[in-house]
Design a protein that fits this description.
mainly alpha
């Protein structure tokens, strides 16, 4: 109950922080524009003939929606945790009555309004320039879109907390963050749509969390999935949410015991 009462204050603090560091925030947002950079490349590839079912306009829809998704689900909790462990700021946070994970979550979610400043115009452009057949027209797809985006955010958040918690053992876990992003760039559909992968490689992303952070919400909103396939992917996504949430909690709890034992 106490946590619920403090959530509005935490959201306000997160929004004020994002506003105060708006220059740094803008730099971060601009680094997530890779989908817009990849768009003309794939558009040119498909101009002469469709590729893996994608027309030129299909690629346009995919990467414009991908940019919007990326703005809505971005996370950086691992960097925050690493910084607080390194500087000792985590000690003060642990003295507060609210679990630090709530702070990290609200800090990320409270920045969405600022990220939407970039995402909204791109969403409008997407609606204006893409063909109707390149976005989902089924009501069920859009009904699933919101919880799918929430699931994408949750996977990224819990993965970042789990990786950040490793710094309680390793002092720094930034290299592990780099490994996560290497997997994300290659296997999420962020740079290359999974449908363009060789047939033998396409099943691999379905067994890993990266696709459910990025590719799945895009395919849902661009009408690339049947109802049955969308439900299967949705169930898989939230299975990853549960698994990574449990992993983050275990690593955090055990890491804090070690951190305290060494006088952190």
């Amino acid at each position: 109950m106490r946590t619920l009462r403090t959530l509005p204050a935490l959201f306000k603090l997160g929004f004020v922080s994002a506003t105060a560091y708006r220059a740094e925030f803008l730099v971060w947002a601009l680094t997530s524009t890779l989908p817009l950079i990849m768009l003309p490349l794939w558009h040119a590839v498909a101009e002469e003939a469709p590729l893996a079912g994608f027309t030129a306009n299909g690629f346009t829809a995919y990467f414009l929606v991908g940019f919007v998704v990326r703005q809505l689900v971005g996370n950086w909790a691992s960097w925050t945790i690493n910084y607080e462990v390194k500087t000792g700021a985590l000690n003060q946070r642990l003295l507060r009555p609210v679990h630090p994970m709530w702070f990290y979550a609200t800090e990320s979610l409270a920045s969405i309004p600022l990220r939407s400043i970039l995402a909204f115009p791109v969403a409008v452009v997407a609606l204006l320039v893409v063909d109707r057949g390149d976005v989902a027209t089924s009501g069920w797809a859009w009904a699933l879109a919101a919880p799918a985006i929430l699931g994408a955010w949750a996977i990224g958040f819990f993965a970042h907390v789990a990786i950040g918690a490793l710094s309680l053992w390793m002092h720094q876990s930034i290299k592990v963050v780099d490994l996560w992003y290497a997997g994300f760039f290659v296997l999420s559909g962020y740079v290359i749509p999974i449908a363009v992968f060789p047939a033998w490689l396409q099943p691999v992303p379905h067994w890993l969390p990266f696709e459910y952070v990025h590719g799945f919400p895009i395919e849902l909103m661009t009408g690339a999935l049947s109802f049955d396939e969308a439900l299967r992917r949705f169930a898989a996504q939230w299975t990853w949410v549960a698994f990574l949430g449990a992993l983050a909690a275990v690593l955090w709890h055990r890491g804090l015991r070690r951190y305290g034992a060494y006088g952190g």
